[in-house]
Each structure stands twice: as C-alpha cells, then as structure tokens.
Write a structure and sequence with these properties.
Blueprint: H1 6-41, H2 82-89, H3 94-104, H4 114-133, H5 137-154, H6 162-174, H7 190-203, H8 208-215, H9 238-320
C-alpha cells in the first residue's frame, strides 16, 4: 500500500484550513452587504447651502478626483498607541475621556469648531461602543483606526464614493478577523466583527452624506456656452443712432394715438351692432310674412278638399227622402 507523501498531506491540510477560514469570511461579506444596502437606501440626502465651511472655488488645492485608496493593512496601534490607550483607560468619566481624546487627536478643548466637535463625537462614541462590547486595548485601537481610515477615505473627495469606502472598510476589517500572517491577524472574533460592522454601518454609513457635507468643500459649476459659427454682434452706426432718436421722439405721438384708438373702436362697435340688429329685425319680419302666407295656402287647400265631401253628403240625403 502506497502512503501519501508528507508534502501532499501538508498541502491537503492547508487547503482544508483555508476553506474553514474562508467560510466565516463569506458569511461576514454577505451580512455586511445586506447592512450597507439597507443603510444606503435610507441614507439622508443633504442639500448644499451657502453656509458650507469651505468653497471649492476659494481653495485651489481641492482635488475632485483623488488618487485611489491605499491597500488595507493591519492597523493596530496606528493612531492610538499603547500609551494613549492607557491614558484613556485611566479616565473615570465621559467628560474626562473626551478631554483626553481631544488632546490625543490634537483637537481644541473646550472651544471647538464644527468639524472638531463632530470628529470628537465620532471617536468618543466609538470608544464607548468598544467599552460596552468588552474590547481589549488592542481591539479598541484597531477599531478606532478602522474608523479613522474610513473617515479619511470619505472626506478625500466631495464626490460620492460610498461604494469605494465600503469596499475599503470591509477589506480592512477582514485583515483583523482571519489569521493569515503577514497579511491579516485574528484580532477580532466573528461575533465581534459582526458587531463592529453593524455599528459602523448603522452610524457612519447611514450618515455618510452628512459627514461628506461637513468635511468636504462645496462644488460650484461655472458653465459658459460658446456657439460655433455665429458672428459677434456689430456696433450701431452713427446714422442709426439719429434714427433711434427720431423714433423715440415719435413714441409719445403713437402713445396718444393708441389712447384715442379705444374710443374709435367703441363707436365702430356700437354702429355695427345697431346695423346688425336692424338687419335681424327685417329678416324676422320676412320670415313671419312667409309663415303667414304658407298658413293661408294650407287653409285654402283644406277648405277646397272639404267642400266636395259636403256636397255629396247633401245629395244622398235628398234621395232618401
């Protein structure tokens, strides 16, 4: 009996292990797809107003088409290192945690701008969520880094890129859910990945357009049309300017004539009405006379028809006597 080679058995084991690891990834992809679909359908549309913080015309460095997003990588301790996480763990209240977080993010405290206040709220609520889920310091740092990278991808352009941002987020999320060194690590469990994905979709992606409205410049379209083949307008000559002056002098006379015209029209209208009424009266008389003549003719014919019958009846009576 021939036994398989060690290399062949090792390859079979690796393939089976990869299949086992790919199964939860496929489930997670389908779950995230359903979540982001519902979030984009119920997304809030925002209309641009003049109160936008930045205008694209005033900022020459605004790029409507930024370079493609970088390849997602492991982002543990990327923005919040272990010392920062220890400082956040030592805080005893939410206000103290927000103050420490503002210093770590280099945000003004307590006076803040609109963008700084929104950024602080975003990450403070993310830290509260991580604390409620019981994440470790490594998991909390990675979750905040994922959210930070997602926010940077969102505000990179004022144009809509929700699909690209979602693809970037899910790929970066898988880098922390499957053990495939050096490309990914199993930092989160499957339940933790689903909870984190659900939180990001229901908070950030649901208000994706609002974040883009606040953190991206306003885009204005200056449209100019040029028609090919048309000649430019010619200036008026001096002779025509004199004619225009004469026309302007004649305008008051035309206005006076137009004021007199309504009275003349009324007189003409009344004259026409009287003549029409006269003609109608004459026609009515003619019709009545013709009707009377026709009635007389009919009556005379009827009398002539009735006389022979009366004569014959009188003769019959005489014979009987």
């Amino acid at each position: 009996m021939i036994s398989p080679k060690p290399s062949q058995s090792l390859g079979v084991k690796v393939q089976s292990k990869l299949k086992q690891l790919s199964e939860p990834q496929g489930k997670l992809e389908r779950y995230l797809g359903s979540l982001v679909g519902s979030a984009t359908q119920t997304g809030i549309g925002v209309r641009r107003t003049a109160s936008s913080p930045v205008i694209a015309d005033e900022d020459p460095e605004v790029n409507l088409f930024p370079p493609p997003l970088p390849q997602p990588r492991i982002c543990m301790w990327k923005y919040l290192d272990i010392h920062s996480m220890h400082q956040l763990e030592k805080t005893a209240s939410v206000e103290e945690m927000r103050e420490v977080l503002a210093k770590l993010l280099e945000i003004g405290w307590p006076e803040q701008s609109l963008q700084d206040a929104i950024t602080l709220d975003l990450f403070s609520h993310a830290l509260i969520f991580c604390h409620q889920q019981g994440f470790s310091m490594e998991q909390t740092s990675a979750a905040c880094a994922l959210l930070q990278d997602l926010h940077k991808a969102c505000v990179a352009t004022p144009l809509g890129n929700v699909e690209e941002c979602y693809r970037h987020f899910t790929t970066a999320l898988f880098c922390h859910g499957v053990r495939r060194p050096p490309f990914s690590i199993d930092l989160f469990k499957e339940e933790q990945l689903l909870a984190l994905a659900d939180y990001v979709v229901s908070t950030y992606f649901r208000h994706f357009k609002l974040y883009k409205y606040v953190f991206t410049p306003e885009v204005r379209l200056d449209l100019s049309l040029t028609y090919m083949g048309l000649q430019p307008p010619k200036p008026w000559p001096e002779s025509k300017t004199e004619e225009q002056a004469a026309i302007q002098q004649e305008e008051p006379e035309t206005v006076a004539q137009s004021e007199q015209e309504p009275s003349q029209v009324c007189v003409l209208r009344t004259y026409i009405k009287t003549q029409v009424n006269k003609e109608l009266g004459q026609l009515q008389k003619l019709v009545e006379e013709q009707l009377k003549a026709s009635e007389e003719r009919l009556s005379s014919k009827l009398t002539t028809l009735e006389r022979p019958s009366q004569v014959s009846s009188s003769k019959g009576k005489n014979k009987i006597k």
